[in-house]
Design brief:
The complex is a heterodimer of chains A (110) and B (123). Chain A is mainly beta. Chain A contains no helices and nine strands. In chain A, the strands form two sheets. In chain A, strands 1, 3, 4, 7, 8 and 9 form a six-stranded mixed beta sheet that branches. A three-stranded antiparallel beta sheet of chain A has the order 2-6-5, with no helix packed on it. Chain B is mostly beta strands and 123 residues long. Chain B contains no helices and eleven strands. Chain B has strands spanning 3-7, 11-12, 18-25, 34-39, 45-51, 58-60, 68-73, 78-83, 92-99, 110-113, 117-121. In chain B, a hairpin with a 5-residue loop joins strand 4 and strand 5. The N and C termini of chain B lie far apart (39 Å). Classes of the chains: A mainly beta (110), B mainly beta (123). The A-B interface holds A 2, 32-33, 35, 37, 39, 43-47, 49-51, 56, 86, 88, 90-92, 96-104 and B 35, 37, 44-47, 49-50, 59-62, 95, 97, 100, 105-111, 113-116.
């Protein structure tokens, strides 16, 4: 059971926009920033969003993040087939004194 | 090129020990906190442990506390994970990851990841 809660799956057609939610609590998302990772099987995870909404250089602006209260959200617009991957949210947890991850959301581009 | 390369993964019997290593290159190693993150086959990412740039702050997931020890040698650009009393449930792909900040408690995302090293615990 992950500390952060994500939907196990999401799907969309090419060109559409989807959002993935991440629900936490006061000790993690409520106090600290949310980060998002893209993970393709057999590859190293890739940082997509850090600090709730900031994109590392090289990440397309089709990817955007937001936070409200104890929840974070990742939006992907203009869906592409190469966006098919697992997406994870994460945050520092002050109570656990460590990083907590969501259970991951498997995105399918139909 | 900025990179992290893990090594040390192996097949070990339950109750035995194993030491993982991670070498960084292409960046100033002691400017960053570092983490170990694992992925059990078919499951999601799980944070295992983290260490600040100067080793003054260290944290562990409850699932490994008391069995695993994280350490780093900045002179060798190396991160380590000493794993003791290994259990079947420790079987996973172990990633080394760089924090964007130097202090673990101000964690601001992990921006560089290695390819991982596989640990299999089985009799």
């Amino acid at each position: 059971q992950s500390v952060l809660t994500q939907p196990p799956s999401a799907s969309g057609t090419p060109g559409r926009r989807i959002t993935i939610s991440c629900s936490g609590g006061r000790s993690n998302i409520g106090t600290n920033t949310v980060h998002w990772y893209q993970h393709l099987p057999g590859m190293a995870p890739k940082l997509l969003i850090y600090g709730n909404f900031q994109r590392p250089s090289g990440v397309p602006d089709r990817f955007s993040g937001s936070k409200s209260g104890t929840s974070g959200s990742l939006a992907i617009s203009g869906l592409q087939s190469e966006d098919e991957a697992d997406y994870y949210c994460a945050a520092w947890d002050d109570s656990l004194n460590g990083v907590v991850f969501g259970g991951g959301t498997k995105l399918t581009v139909l | 090129e900025v990179q992290l390369v893990e090594s040390g993964g192996d097949l070990v019997q339950p109750g035995r020990s194993l030491r993982l290593s991670c070498v960084g290159s292409g960046f100033t190693f002691d400017d960053h906190a570092l983490h170990w993150v694992r992925q059990v086959p078919g499951k999601g990412l799980e944070w295992v442990s983290g260490i600040s740039w100067d080793s003054s702050a260290i944290g562990y997931a409850d699932s490994v506390k008391g069995r695993f020890i994280i350490s780093r040698d900045n002179a060798k650009n190396s991160l380590y994970l000493e794993m003791k009393s290994l259990r079947n449930e420790d079987t996973a792909l172990y990633f080394c990851a760089r924090d964007r900040t130097a202090t673990m408690i101000s964690h601001y995302g992990m921006d560089v990841w290695g390819q991982g090293t596989t640990v299999t615990v089985s009799s």
